[in-house]
Amino acid sequence: MSLQVQQLTKIYGGQKAVDNISFSIQKGEIVGFLGPNGAGKSTTMKIATTYLPPTSGSVWVEGINVEERPIEVKKVIGYLPEHNPLYLDMFVHEYLQFVGSVYGLKGSNLKTRVQELVEMCGLTREQNKRIEALSKGYRQRVGLAQALIHSPQVLILDEPTSGLDPNQILEIRKLIKDISREKTVIFSTHIMQEVEALCDRVIIINKGKIVADDLLENLLRENASLEEVFRSFTNTVAA
Amino acid sequence: MIQVFVREFSGYLSSLIAYMVIGVFLTAIGLLTWVFPETSVLDYGYADMDTLFSMAPYVFIFLIPAIAMKTFAEEKKMGTLELLLTKPLTETQVVLGKFFAAWALVLLALLPTIVYYFSVAALGNPVGNIDTAAVVGSYIGLILLAAVFSAIGLLASSLTYNQIVAFILAAFFSFLFYLGFDSLSAFAGTQALLVKQIGVLYHYESLSRGLIDSRDVVYAISVTIFFLLCTTVVLKSRLW
After folding, report:
1. What does pTM read for this prediction?
2. Residues B207-234: what's their mean pLDDT?
3. Is pLDDT of A238 > 50?
4. Which of B80, B87, B238 sits opposite A74 (nearest CB)?
5. B3: β partners
6. Structurally, how many domains does chain A consist of?
7. Closest to A71 (Cβ–Cβ): which among B6, B88, B240?
8. Cβ B11–A90 below 8 Å, yes or no?
9. Which of residues 82-101 of A touch B (CB under 8 A)?
């Protein structure tokens, strides 16, 4: 079990952001995490990456409890937070070396790994630029590269394609597809075509509760498109 | 910790901050020590370095908060703190890495003033007549003072998203710790000495007499650790 969430609840100042959700993700699955803004997607991801503690319930990543052994959890996950925060004053190369060194990579190992990622993420021409000089699409690649530098078993991506143009979205999508072959990937998005193109399984969350958790093909069998699925599960206002 | 230190320190060096800090510090101290008639060693008549050691803390009160103000405030604002804290680093490692980087930058700015020692020694009569022990004690005092101020700066920065607020908080608390307790001790009656000893100035002056008393060193290190612990607690407060 790569990621196991059990009866997870998170309360922010009296408001339930995540309300008693449970799901588990097997090794090698690509799971799309859908839901309207404010449904609790990011909160769930932040708890799974140890950034926030659960109010109640537990999360295990690769069998490791996130509250009990956070450092070990952090070593096995690659995380791209929402809005892709980056140290804008650093050079692409320098930044990836920094992140690699934090994961304990050293010397020539670190150098070859950074070079591999620069090539894999299509950053060869940009690697000697400062991150602030990069376009949004390239910054997103840098964000992905830093999440991948230690070859994590579990990738958690919070809206990896938000704010990109259609070409960039295709490129990032292809990148995620390529790297997801031997990894467990969970990502959130608002773009339904992306889910159709990438995922095996879809979890839809609304107002902190899971409203659908099924294989993509099962969801599509009953409805014409994933957009309809999404709307029927999350739209509380009568259409 | 070392990775954070390297990143922070090279961050200072690759932006203008390091050069601004070193330039402003050396210019201000140089003017005070050698040019301004009220404080200049040349007009003073005694070949000692008191001007440097009495004025440097006031320059530090403005300069160190400026160095430290971005450490956490900017990371919080940019969201990179989330990135950093979801890497396999403990809060303590992050705080220490940033602390040593800020401290190291101050020490780098202080380093060239060692030249003053030789200049002042050459001005003595007879040449070389300078109280070396007092100079060494004062330098140790300044180095420890820089540590205390850096720790205060880090704590202030961790409390806010706004760098200006961090700067003002840090400058105020540095001032309070340096001079405030000393001045407030006037109201403390029989407890005056105790209140004086809470402040940095008492210990700084004691060190600058050239007697390195372990109590003064322990005081400075404890205060530094106290503020760094508070900073760690602030970072961990998201987990409550």
Report:
1. 0.90
2. 92
3. no
4. B87
5. none
6. 1
7. B88
8. yes
9. 83, 85-90, 94, 98-99, 101
Q: Is residue A30 part of a domain?
A: yes
User: Is residue A239 included in any domain, yes or no?
Assistant: no
pLDDT band at A236 (very low <50, low <70, confident <90, very high): low
Structure tokens at B233: 């607690």
- How are strands ordered across the β-sheet holding A3-12? A15-25, A3-12, A56-61, A64-65
Mutate to test the interface with A, among B7, B8, B238 (most CBs of A within 10 A): B7
Residue A153 falls inside a structural domain: yes
> What is the mean pLDDT of the segment spanning B203-226?
90
- Residue B238 confidence (pLDDT): 84
What residue numbers bound the domain in which A102 lies? 3-234
Which tokens in the block code for residue B175?
A: 């001032």
Tell me how far apart the alpha carbons of residues A13 and A184 are, in angstroms, rounded to a whole number. 32
User: Residue B26, exposed/middle/buried by CB under 10 A (0-12, 13-18, 19+)?
Assistant: middle
In the numeric block, which tokens belong to residue A158? 């919070």
CATH at A209:
3.40.50.300
Residues of B in contact with A86 (CB under 8 A): 78, 80, 83
